[in-house]
Design goal:
With 72 residues, the chain is of the alpha+beta class. The protein is built from two helices and four strands, in the order ββαββα. This is DUF397 domain-containing protein.
């Protein structure tokens, strides 16, 4: 990715893999993700940093989670 996306107006969505008791809360910004990078942050720290992953790398990660390749 050649530039850092402006996340100041991003609409964040909690991952369906996050649990409901306040832990393991991952959010991403789908509208920003359409521009080639997937921004991800900790929902418990909404004004903290966000990581932006290349779309292909994020897709591979999600596939690995879904198939259980990253399970404990």
């Amino acid at each position: 990715m050649s530039s850092i996306p402006d996340l100041s107006r991003a609409v964040w969505v909690k991952s369906s893999y996050s649990n409901g008791d306040g832990g393991d809360c991952v959010e991403w910004a789908p509208a920003v993700a359409r521009s080639g990078g997937v921004p991800v942050r900790d929902s418990k720290v909404p004004h903290g940093p966000a990581l932006v992953f290349p779309s292909a790398s994020w897709s591979s990660f999600v596939d690995d989670v879904k198939t259980g390749r990253l399970a404990d």
